[in-house]
């Protein structure tokens, strides 16, 4: 019997979850829930239903885990607790500063309903967090470094698009190679924002817009660009479509630490991701944790969990015996 | 109240465990057990006792976790089950092929005694296994690659030392950069043994030994060297001591996989270690898992576990709240 999955929200992430389920024979997509008119939505999985979000409660007994694919700004803070009162849920809530509050809300809702929720699943938060945590536990004396990219930042691309005279834009976050190397060399550098990442922007102008003014507006934008070395390229709409329509991302988590009676030996732990599709990779992590949610709930566990609370074996379709024989 | 640790066996690994405990304020080394004459052993921790292995049973109620630092060939297969009937234990059993059998033995002994054992802790098996497992669960369609080095292989160094005419030797295992790059490029290469690693040997000859014969004996040794491109350097005893007395190691675990409805997007997950001291890093991993063994046993868990069965948060001295607020 396969694990029955529901998807709430059918954007890039929702579609990524649908694709990831296809790769996992022990799982089955049963329904996609949308705020749009269900008739207007065409999904890839022939066997699955498309329903209005308002019908979700009717599916309580037909879905083992509901995967919430909305945004962290406005959707998930209310959706995850709401749906955790009806379903086991997994979300990718990624507003780091608000995680403790979100955890509390989901914990209370899920506990009251006897359901299990796993929040902040993906790669950062998610796999990057796990690697930070493992590395810190292993090397208590050391320094942490996280670099992002090369990859598209949706938030920064949107910020450029809001500037007057800009028709479309894509922004890449790029780690500074020299900074990465200094960390890898065990130099434990103190790195400023500017020293860690550069920003590269590809901008399509509206007809008649002033390129100089737009470039100035980008480079001086507080928080988003002012603290970085930023490069701006003006390109045609065709060029943007042809060369910059992907959503790649990735990054590096490093911990540089010492061991020995007097800290005389250096060690470097490095974890990195190079992703052609940020949403599809995030979705793949989420689907593995949906398996964990299903199993943990079957064992009688309820409440809110994060990647820190879940033993790795719960993510794998393989049995304990298989894992010990072939992966240990 | 700190976690009380015992160490069985005071070689490189045992000393590494002692150093790692010093970095973890919630832990305390209470005793080192040895097969040697305890009087002859001088340890670094002033507050800890040195005892004969025959006295270990007297310490049953004074030690929370016993860390077994013997070898996998002859010590651990009998020691871990034996000590799991008296203590919570952690070992670094690394004979991959015999892990299922070792697991059974420790499971039975620990269950019967109401104790908890964690086996095969370190970096391979250990952190490398974890990374293989996580990456496989996230990207079910893909290929796994593990490269070791650059680092000293104790087994290969010993094999050289057994050749007639060899006074001393150190062997380095080195990953082939071109093979690593091919994997990173997403080429999913099929790699032969020879294509993945090279072997570099530093050899001190006995007086009057025939260098040519020794080199031939090394390069044609089945299993150890015959399948590899091997380089042999003859050096003086002083040079060996000066430049090759460390025990560095490390390596790379990669998974190259695809996502998307038709597998159209590529992804690379890479985990790597660069270690100045192989035994001290292994010891640092073990000590983090000793914390987990203590906590899990306090919760009432018994039997045998591996790194796959243990939720990451158990390794950290930080609370769930702290981890969520600062590491997620």
Q: How does this structure look, described?
A:
2 copies of one chain form a homodimer. The first copy, chain A, is built from 11 helices and 14 strands. Chain A has helices at residues 12-22, 76-84, 99-113, 127-138, 154-161, 177-184, 193-196, 211-219, 237-243, 278-298, 320-326, and strands at residues 3-8, 27-34, 49-52, 65-68, 88-90, 116-118, 142-148, 151-152, 166-175, 197-205, 229-234, 249-259, 265-275, 303-305. The radius of gyration of chain A is 22 Å and the shape is globular.
Strand order of the largest sheet of chain A: 3-2-1-4-5-6-14
Number of helices of chain A: 11
Q: How does the major sheet of chain A shape up?
A: 7 strands, parallel
Mean pLDDT of chain A: 97
Write down the Rg of chain A: 22 Å
Structural class of chain A: alpha/beta
SSE topology:
2 copies of one chain form a homodimer.
Chain A: E1 3-8, H1 12-22, E2 27-34, E3 49-52, E4 65-68, H2 76-84, E5 88-90, H3 99-113, E6 116-118, H4 127-138, E7 142-148, E8 151-152, H5 154-161, E9 166-175, H6 177-184, H7 193-196, E10 197-205, H8 211-219, E11 229-234, H9 237-243, E12 249-259, E13 265-275, H10 278-298, E14 303-305, H11 320-326
Parallel strand pairs in A: 1-2, 1-4, 2-3, 4-5, 5-6, 6-14, 10-11
Antiparallel strand pairs in A: 7-12, 8-9, 9-10, 12-13
Helix pairs in contact in A: 1-10, 2-3
